[in-house]
């Protein structure tokens, strides 16, 4: 590994260093307040972020300004997808049932299209602090932020860069929180004190797990694209993880660096270097530039750039899509390489790869830092799956997958999950049992609508004396009716009422607020014999109250109907070969449409046997947009695309089977 100091601080750049520090996401506010205390509010403040109009916000604000009803505005905005650009607004308006020839509607369309990209309002940067020697108010207006105890200036990061002022980014990573929580749980239950530096290095079993793409919940390598790369790259050491983190990025993909690297790694393509100097720069990545530092170093050793000029090239790479300005560097790069005896084709190929990097190239220094978290989280997943999953659940929201998918994955790894129980659960998820028999007890945080203050009061009073019955819980716990109903709906009161969910909800509904005169009076009345919920109803209630179910997967109950429709399970699909036809269906757990993917949408479906990855081309996505975005249970007919253990289904037709789910709804996480 070779880290260039010029990327951090350059004499020729004559500006402050670039400082980014990642902290646990649950402690970021603590760090921010420390900065305010240390430097004082006169010398430290958050930078602003300029929020610009996107299609959805543009149509909302213009519609309101022109007097459209809130219902109309909402219908217009909700029909615009997160990936739509301004050109798609007229089509989306037509699809929503509006007449684009109407004078008011056409005016709204015209104005909305004009303001897309214009500033809408100032917000706070996620963690960029401006720190100055002189009082900030002598430079720029400082104002109180919407969040308590924060102050923010009216300049954004681009203004700070232009003025050459020092900005320190105090950023947050959810995985740092999860790792800290996991270490605490291991210390508590196993008596083993772990730190990031004491995790055993280069564990072959961990790399085997990673190479199988068994990485749900693992930092950085749990996405569909990363999982598709892992069996091809098959990381076997730490530096392989550094490359894995960096190579699945728009820069290397657009610069056509991925396939050459994989072919060379598998011995399918010769590794050549035009000079010994280039070999020293590219040898660690088999002759393919993958990191930003390699681009900088290539410019220096092959084209004669000074360190400062090379870093200027890097900075131009980061902005040329928006501002241009890379042409001068390109000409100098090609001329410099030719003067030093390099072939023009090689020089132009390097320049083309630089253009591919654009603003998406990943620094080796960052990739190495992230790779450490990749390895540690993978080690925890392999050796302590219950602990790792418990820590992830307590660190939500974070990551690529919702708690339902994390729990499903843990159960596939033989982790026992216990339900939420008012007599056993704390606010956070906890571990029960000893040593290798640890099970996860879901916490009260999983119950929708249940408040944290109510949970903390309940746990405190339960520790003083166990609750005897529902009346005791109601009287001593001081819980609101809504809290009690949330617990009943999540089946968390069953052990207390010695009955099922429906009976518990009935009992809670009959509770009366305590009377100051007759505080302990309890009126006994008969309870109706309510029918227990069917398995399907239990699953629906579970998803509605906690977002997941510990019962059978919903598709287990639908399998006979799906079989009649000719729909294969995920396990059956993975037995098929490249080019075979297949029909699948599953709960939609993620949709992703990266900007670098040429408008291709990637969808991950989940059934009772595993996950299926769909590739939906732009034409089909537009044709069947309603099914793609609206279905909770999505079916697809298509063709298998297989490369070894990596399998995708190229969708030819989409089907919405959501009606089979009745009232069950699951949340999908959508990404760019």
Automatic annotation (TrEMBL):
GO biological process, one term: DNA replication
DNA polymerase helix-hairpin-helix motif domain residues: 415-504
The protein's name in its UniProt record: Error-prone DNA polymerase
The OB domain, residue ranges: 583-653
Gene3D superfamilies (UniProt xref): 1.10.150.870, Bacterial DNA polymerase III alpha subunit, thumb domain
Catalytic activity: DNA(n) + a 2'-deoxyribonucleoside 5'-triphosphate = DNA(n+1) + diphosphate
PANTHER family reported for this sequence: DNA POLYMERASE III SUBUNIT ALPHA (PTHR32294), ERROR-PRONE DNA POLYMERASE (PTHR32294:SF4)
Enzyme Commission code: 2.7.7.7
Cellular localisation: Cytoplasm
Segments forming domain Bacterial DNA polymerase III alpha subunit NTPase: 2-172
NCBIfam families given in the database record: PRK05672.1
GO molecular function: 3'-5' exonuclease activity; DNA-directed DNA polymerase activity; nucleic acid binding
Keyword Cytoplasm set for record: yes
GO cellular component: cytoplasm
Residue ranges occupied by any DNA polymerase III alpha subunit finger domain in the UniProt entry: 175-341
UniProt keyword terms in alphabetical order: Cytoplasm, DNA damage, DNA repair, DNA replication, DNA-directed DNA polymerase, Nucleotidyltransferase, Transferase
A Pfam family recorded for this sequence: HHH_6
């Amino acid at each position: 590994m070779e880290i260039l100091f010029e990327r951090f601080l350059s004499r020729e750049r004559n500006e402050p260093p670039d400082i980014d520090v990642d902290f646990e996401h649950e402690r970021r506010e603590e760090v921010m307040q420390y900065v305010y205390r240390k430097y004082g509010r006169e010398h430290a403040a958050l930078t602003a972020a300029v929020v610009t109009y996107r299609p959805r916000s543009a149509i909302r604000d213009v519609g309101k300004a022109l007097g459209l009803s809130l219902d109309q505005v909402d219908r217009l905005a909700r029909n615009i997808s997160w990936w739509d650009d301004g050109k798609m607004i007229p089509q989306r308006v037509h699809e929503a049932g509006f007449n684009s020839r109407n004078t008011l509607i056409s005016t709204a369309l015209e104005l909305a299209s004009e303001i897309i990209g214009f500033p809408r309002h100032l917000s706070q940067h996620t963690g960029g602090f401006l720190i100055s020697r002189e009082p900030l108010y002598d430079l720029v207006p400082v104002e109180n932020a919407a969040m308590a105890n924060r102050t923010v200036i009216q300049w954004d990061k681009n203004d700070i860069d232009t003025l050459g002022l020092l900005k320190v980014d105090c950023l947050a990573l959810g995985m740092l929180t999860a790792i800290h929580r996991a270490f605490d749980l291991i210390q508590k239950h196993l008596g083993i004190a772990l730190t990031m530096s004491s995790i055993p290095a280069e564990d072959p079993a961990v790399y085997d797990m990673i190479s199988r793409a068994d990485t749900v919940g693992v930092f950085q390598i749990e996405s569909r694209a990363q999982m598709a790369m892992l069996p091809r790259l098959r990381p076997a050491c730490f530096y392989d993880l550094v490359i894995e983190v960096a190579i699945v990025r728009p820069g290397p993909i657009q610069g056509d660096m991925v396939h050459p690297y994989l072919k060379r790694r598998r011995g399918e393509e010769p590794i050549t270097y035009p000079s010994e100097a280039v070999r020293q720069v590219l040898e660690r990545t088999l002759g393919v530039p993958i990191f930003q530092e390699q681009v900088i170093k290539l410019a220096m050793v092959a084209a004669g750039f000074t360190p400062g000029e090379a870093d200027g090239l890097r900075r131009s790479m980061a902005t040329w899509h928006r501002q241009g300005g890379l042409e001068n560097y390109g000409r100098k790069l090609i001329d410099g390489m030719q003067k030093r005896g390099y072939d023009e084709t090689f020089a132009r190929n390097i320049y083309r790869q630089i253009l591919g990097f654009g603003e998406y190239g990943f620094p080796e220094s960052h990739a190495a830092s992230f790779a450490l978290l990749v390895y540690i989280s993978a080690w925890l997943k392999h050796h302590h799956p219950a602990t790792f999953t418990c820590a992830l659940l307590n660190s939500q929201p974070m990551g690529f997958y919702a708690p339902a998918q994390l729990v499903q994955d843990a159960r596939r790894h033989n982790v026992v999950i216990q339900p939420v129980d008012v007599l056993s659960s704390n606010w956070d998820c906890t571990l029960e049992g000893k040593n290798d028999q640890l099970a996860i007890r879901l916490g009260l945080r999983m119950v929708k609508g249940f408040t944290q203050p109510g949970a903390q009061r309940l746990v405190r009073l339960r520790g003083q004396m166990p609750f005897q019955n529902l009346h005791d819980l109601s009287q001593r716990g001081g819980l609101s009716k809504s809290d009690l109903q949330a617990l009943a709906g999540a089946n968390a009161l069953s052990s207390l009422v010695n009955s099922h969910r429906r009976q518990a909800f009935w009992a809670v509904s009959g509770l009366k607020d305590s009377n100051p005169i007759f505080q302990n009076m309890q009126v006994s009345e008969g309870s109706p014999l309510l029918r227990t919920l069917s398995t399907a109803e239990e699953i629906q209630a579970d998803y509605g109250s906690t977002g997941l179910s510990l019962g059978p997967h919903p598709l287990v109950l639908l399998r006979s109907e799906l079989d009649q429709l000719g729909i294969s399970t995920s396990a059956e699909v993975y037995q098929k070969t490249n080019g075979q036809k297949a029909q699948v269906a599953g709960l939609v757990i993620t949709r992703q449409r990266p900007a670098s993917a040429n408008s291709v949408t990637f969808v991950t479906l989940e059934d009772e046997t595993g996950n299926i990855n769909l590739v939906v081309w732009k034409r089909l996505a537009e044709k069947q947009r309603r099914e793609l975005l609206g279905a909770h249970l999505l079916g697809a007919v298509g063709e298998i695309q297989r490369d070894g253990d990596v399998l995708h289904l190229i969708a030819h037709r989409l089907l919405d089977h959501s009606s089979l789910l009745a009232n069950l709804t699951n949340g999908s996480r959508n990404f760019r």
